[in-house]
Design a protein that fits this description.
The strands form five sheets. Strands 9, 12, 15, 16, 17, 18 and 19 form a seven-stranded mixed β-sheet that branches. The protein is built from ten helices and 19 strands. Strand 4 and strand 5 form a beta hairpin.
Length: about 400
């Protein structure tokens, strides 16, 4: 019996995906639930598991864009598992009974050209040896010939190669969204600085006990997340978004956190952060970060946030203007912590300082709300015991 595997819907409003990579080869025997492909949507990269066990026949190539519901492979459920497959741990050859004609492949020498590309190069006066082909086995394609530029100047003897590769569907969608944000919102950024010494002191005193009891570290994200939740309570317009001629005001705080994953930046969401403690935030941050790094994050886990926190400081950024994560209206940018001289009670002292940035949509958030919001975040971070812990750190940290 032949099973037709179709592209499942990875989420609402997604109509097509791109085959990022096949994890098996044509004619392989696959087990049920075995990952057979990675597919890119415009929101995430997801694994496609085999629906049944059997011999697989691929119906799409890597890089193909396929509609949701389209057939991407066939699984012959009557195909027998080759003997010794599990023991050897290698991919066996397909049984002869289902052997498929293999498309012959022409091997081209590096620098070889098609008649069309050769004609273009001849017109430009460029030798094929001066062009790096991006086609199969280094063949010079028509696009390579069109984009080729005659060499000028004195050769320096170094490498001058370039590589042309198609961006993933996820990366292309991110690019489109970033441009649309710049073009369709009245984005503005306000800045402030935070003296991180009080948080440093708290972490130094309690981080060992916190980790021993809860199994997670006491990081900066719990302080920032709870400071943001408080500031959103004080300035609810920052927790809103525009929908046509309407403003949607949320009474919950779903905080998106930017996490670097193997396929690029992911933005999973901490749901109802207003109900979480320090332990709850740190546990959720750790869980989402692990899922993002292992490529297990789902579309549902990355949609529906009402405000975003991004930390460029982990990469060494001193200051930046983060771009709003639509349809949200605000994003807080954290940066690296550097010891700087500041004035305290009329004296110059050295303190660990972080610059923070709030980018916001000026169509829905005015200067009063944006500046007030960032000041409220600063106040909570510089007075965490009083403002975030109700003057009882041990109780707040559940120690």
């Amino acid at each position: 019996m032949i099973l037709e595997m179709k592209v499942p819907s990875p989420g609402e409003s997604i109509t097509e995906v791109e085959i990022a990579a096949w994890l098996v080869e044509d004619g392989d025997y696959v087990e049920k639930d075995q990952p057979i492909a990675e597919v890119d949507s415009d929101k995430a990269t997801l694994e496609l598991p085999a629906e049944e066990s059997g011999i697989i026949t691929l119906k799409a190539e890597e890089g193909d864009a396929v509609e949701v519901g389209a057939i991407v492979c066939l699984i012959d459920m009557d195909g027998k598992k080759p003997e010794g497959m599990a023991a050897k741990g290698v991919k066996p050859e397909a049984p002869k009974a289902i052997e498929k004609p293999v498309e012959s492949k022409t091997t081209y020498a590096s620098g070889s050209t098609s008649p069309a590309s050769k004609k273009i190069l001849d017109e430009k006066g460029i030798a094929p040896s001066e062009v790096k082909g991006t086609g199969r086995d280094g063949r010079i394609t028509k696009d390579d010939a069109i984009n080729a530029v005659p060499s000028m100047g004195t050769p320096a003897g170094g490498s001058r190669s370039s590589e042309r590769s198609k961006m993933s569907m996820l990366r292309r969608k991110v690019a489109q969204r970033l441009v649309s944000v710049k073009n369709e919102t009245a984005m503005l950024t306000t800045f402030n600085e935070v003296d991180m010494k009080p948080i440093f002191d708290l972490r130094k005193e309690y981080k060992e006990d916190f980790k021993a009891k809860h199994g997670v570290g006491l990081g900066f994200m719990s302080f920032f997340t709870l400071a943001v939740v408080r500031a959103l309570e004080l300035y609810p317009d920052v927790n809103s978004m525009i929908d046509g001629d309407y403003k949607i005001l949320h009474d919950f705080k779903d905080i998106s956190i930017a996490v670097s994953g193997p396929k690029g930046l992911m933005v999973p969401v901490i749901r109802n952060a207003e109900n979480l403690t320090f332990r709850g935030v740190e546990s959720e941050v750790k869980r989402l970060a692990i899922r993002a790094r292992e490529g297990q994050i789902t579309v549902d886990e990355m949609t529906g946030g009402t405000f975003t926190i991004t930390n460029g400081g982990v990469f060494g950024s001193m200051l930046s203007t983060p771009i709003i994560n639509p349809p949200q209206s605000g994003i807080l940018g954290m940066h690296n912590i550097v010891e700087r001289p500041i004035a305290v009670n009329g004296e110059v002292v050295i303190r660990p300082i972080m610059f923070v940035a709030l980018s916001y949509d000026h169509r829905v958030i005015d200067g009063r709300e944006s500046v007030g919001f960032l000041v409220a975040v600063k106040e909570a971070l510089e007075n965490p015991v009083e403002i975030l812990m109700d003057n009882n750190p041990k109780k707040a940290l559940e120690l």
